[in-house]
Amino acid sequence: MRRPYRKLNLDERRILATMLQAKATKTKIAEALGRDRSTIHREIKRNWWHDEEVPQADGYWHLSAQMLADRRHLKRRKLECHEDLRNEVIAKLKEGWSPEQIAGRLKIEPRAPYRICHETIYRYVYSESGQSQELSRHLSERQRKRKPRYARKARDRVFPLETSIHNRPDEINDRSQFGNWEGDLMIFERAQGNANVATLVERKTRFTVLLRNNDRKSRPLMNKLIDEMSPLPAQARRSITFDRGFEFTSWRELQNGMGTKAWFCDPQAPWQKGSVENMNKRVRRYLPRDTALLSLQNRHLKSLCDRLNATPRKCLGYRTPAEAFRDELLKLERR
C-alpha cells in the first residue's frame, strides 16, 4: 500500500545539502535519508535558491530550502490569515454550498479580493480550527476526518462484482417475483444526532416498512433489518437492493442471518433503486429533514407506514400496497 508523503525536516535538508555539495547522486542521497528518489528530486527542484543579484549564490541550501517550504505552507493557510475570506467561506458552507461551488464562484466574482482552491477549503474544514467549529457537518458527505484516497477501502472488496445490480435475475428486474425489496436510509439534520429512518419497499407490491434507527453504523442497521424481516416467510424476503453507502457495508449479515441476498446499484447511481427513492420523496412530506426523530413516538411512525400502505397505487391497478402484499402472502401459504 502506498505510504503517505512526509515532508523533509531541517536535519534531512542539511544532510541533503551536504551530500549535494559532495557531488553525491540523488539515488545515494535517497538511500541515505531512507526516502524515494522522486522525493529528493522534487525537494531540490522546489527549494533550489535563485538569486538574480548574486548568481553565484544559486544552489540548494538547507536554511533557504526550509524558508521556502515554510513560505509555501503559509500560503496554503490562506483561510487562517484572511479573516474576511474565512468568514465568507464559512457563511457559504452554512448555506449549503460545496467547497467547489464556493471556489468557483470566487473565481468569477469581479470584486472578490481573493481566489481560493476548493482543496484549501476542505483542508481548513478538517483542520483543528475547522473541527472545533464543526464545519464538516455542513458538507453533503460528512466524515469525522478526511481520509487520503489511497487509505480508503477498495469498493470492489466491500461490494464484489457478483452483487452488482447488473447480475440481478430477470424475475427481480421485471417485478414478477414476490419478496425482493429495495432499501435506503433517510438522513436528518445533524442537530438530530445519528437518528435516521430506514426505508424498505417490496418491489412487486410497493409495500413499505419504515424503521427508526438511532445509529448510522452498518452492523446495527443490519441487525434492525433482520429483527424486522425474520418473521416473514423466506420467499417474502428473498433479496434487498441497496446503494453503495457505507451504511450497507455489513450486508453479509443479512445472508448469514436470514438467507437474504443483497444487490447493489452502480456507484453514484441511486436512481437504479427507483421504488425506494420514490417512496422517500413521499415520506419527506411527513418527515422533513428537521424532524426531531428522538422525540417521535413509534406509533406515529407506524401510523405513517399504515397510511402509505393504504393509499391506492395506479401501478397496482388502484389496489393498495397492503392489499397486494396480503394477497402475495396468502399465495405462499397455499403452496
TrEMBL record:
Keyword Amino-acid biosynthesis among record annotations: no
Gene Ontology molecular-function annotations: nucleic acid binding; transposase activity
One Pfam family matching this protein: rve
GO cellular component, one term: cytosol
Keywords: DNA recombination
Record field: transmembrane: none
GO biological process: DNA integration; DNA recombination; transposition
UniProt keyword annotation of tRNA processing present: no
Domain of life: Bacteria
Segments forming domain Integrase catalytic: 165-329
Name this polypeptide is given: Transposase, IS30 family
